[in-house]
Design goal:
The chain is an alpha/beta fold and 243 residues long. The protein is 22% helix and 24% strand. The two termini are 37 Å apart. 32% of the residues are buried. Keywords: Ion transport, Transport.
Amino acid sequence: MRVAIAGAGAVGRSIAAELLENGHEVLLVDKSPGAISVERVPQAEWLLADACEITSLDEAALQRCHVVIAATGDDKVNLVVSLLAKTEYGVPRVVARVNNPKNEWLFTEAWGVDVAVSTPRLMSALVEEAVSVGDLVRLMRFSQGDANLVELTLPPEAALVGTRVGDVRWPQDTSLVTVIRGSRVLTPGADDVLEAGDELLFVAAPSREEPLEELLSLRREDGPAPGARDADGEEPDGVGTEQ
């Protein structure tokens, strides 16, 4: 996969090094001569150019890129790079760094952004994730498709503990994508049983976050988990989530 990164500062170089380690082809673009430090990431291609200029992006052959990452420290630059990458070069995936949380509302599909990564928001979410059990934590917003990556650690008293994944009727527009259990990362199957302490990662529409949190936070003493089926495979009377 070919990836172009606008911004060769500490963030851009770190991303480049990680991608190169995973076998991808990386081009770093920066207009500041001082940022061109080939010796720091020697396996990458380097281009001294202004990523907001069409001529520079032509030189970078952006049309050959599968992903563009706008990782500069200037939100205006990141928005312009994202828009040009998507509209002028048809790059399939555009990821943009948000430096100022007040600007986060701009980083949408309208500006060509598929995934917006706000460092302050992400750090806040990771702190919440580390100390929160039973509360839904939003980790990342995906502009394309209007969805969020959310996480919840299943508390011991949750009604879903001991329930098969396939026996739960999750809210519409919600997908359980990963279960982190201790040091293991599990791809959940229908026969996998949810355990206390499981970190559940979902991709969910924003409007489904509240019913998802209600489903996951239901306690055993409150009754059967919505959507959970009994031993005969039947749902208890009067339960079920919106479909």
